[in-house]
Amino acid sequence: MSAIERLTLRGAGLDLAADATGPVDGQPLLFLHGSGQTRQSWGKALVEAARHGFRAISLDLRGHGDSDWSPDGRYDLDLFADDLRAVLTQLERPPVVVGASLGGIVGMMVAAADPTALRALVLVDITAHVDMEGANEVIAFMSAGADGFASIEEAADAVSAYLPHRDKPRSSKGLAKNLRQRGDRWYWHWDPAFMSMGADVKQHAEGPTVMESAARGLTIPTLLIRGGRSRIVTEEGARAFMEMVPHADYVHIDGAHHMVAGDANDAFNDAVFAFADRQAG
Fold it and tell me: Among candidates 54, 17, 11, which has minimal Cα distance to 38?
C-alpha cells in the first residue's frame, strides 16, 4: 500500500490541503468532495485508485477540512472554480476529476470553459439541475449543527438520524476527522460562512443557469454516476443531463443515496476505475 502524502496546494489566494498517494508518474485522479465534506470522504477510493496505478489526490475545498477559509467569507461557485484552475497548474498533467455534488459542479464549470484543463470528468450524483427539496434537506442538516455538539457521540447520532439507511459505525474515530473541538463543543470542520453557499446553489439551480451552460459546454469524456435513491438528482434530471451531454456515459447504482461513494463503495470504485482506465489508455 502506498503511503499517504500530505500536500499543500495553492488555490486562488489561499492554501488548500490535500492527500496524495500512488505512483507520481501515474495518471492523476483528483477527487473533489461535496458541500460540508472533506478530503477524508474519499479515503477508500483514494487507496483503491493508487492500487490501480493512478496518482490519486483528494483535496479539501476552501472553507473545508484543513484548507484555508475565505478571508472575506465568500463562497460563490466562481471562487471554487478559480481554486481548481490554480490547483491544475500544479499537477504534472490534466487529471481525471471525480467530483461529488459541489465538487462536480466546479469540475463541470472548469471543463466547459477550457476542455484542455481536464482529461475527463466524473460527476457523482450531480447534474445541471439540483432537486431543491433534496438540497434543502442537506442544508437543514448542515445548519442544525451550527451550534456544535456536546460530544463526538452526539454528532454521530445526528448523522445516523440524517442517514438512517447506513449502519452506525462502531467507532466514531472516522467522524472525528470531520469535527474540531472549540472549548467544550465539537463543530463540523467547515467555515460557518459557507452556509451562504446554499443561496448561490439555489440561484444557479433555477435555469437557464451557469450549471446548465456548463453541462451543454462539456466536450471531454464524461461519466455521470447517480445514486438510485438520490434526492438531489432525480431520474428526470439524469435523463435531461444525458440529452445535454449525449456523449456522456451513465451509471445508475441502485442502492445508493446522494453520497454514492459511502453508500456503495465497491460499485462506485468499479464504475470510476473502468471509466478512468479508458481515459488513461
Answer: 17
**Is the entire prediction scored with pTM above 0.90?**
no
| CA-based nearest residue to 59, from 107, 95, 7 | 7
Q: Which helix (H) or strand (E) holds 3?
A: none
Whether the ω angle into residue 71 lies within 30 degrees of 0, i.e. cis, is: no
Cβ distance 127 to 62 under 8 Å?
A: no
Average pLDDT for residues 111-127, to the nearest whole number?
96
Point out which residues pair with 185 in neighbouring strands: 182
| Cα–Cα dist 110/268, whole Å | 23
β-bridge pairing 28-32 and 96-100: parallel
- Which amino acid, one-letter code, is at 206? E
E strand segments, 107-160: 120-124
Dist CA 30 CA 136 (whole Å): 27
What is the C-alpha to C-alpha distance for residues 91 and 29, in angstroms, rounded to an integer?
10
Where residue 21 falls (left for φ over 0; alpha for ψ -120 to 50; beta otherwise) is: beta
Minimal CA–CA distance to 57: which of 93, 6, 124? 6
Measured torsion, CA atoms of residues 79, 80, 86, 92, in degrees rounded to the nearest 10: -170
- Per-residue pLDDT tens over the stretch 19-63: 999 999 999 999 999 988 899 989 889 999 999 999 999 999 999
**266 in helix, strand or coil?**
helix
**Cα–Cα nearest to 174, from 262, 100, 54:** 262
Quick count: other Cβ atoms within 10 Å of Cβ 230?
23
Q: Rounded to whole angstroms, how far apart are CA atoms 67 and 38? A: 9
Check: CB of residue 55 under 8 Å from CB of residue 161: no
User: Hunting for cell 460540508 — which residue is that?
Assistant: 36
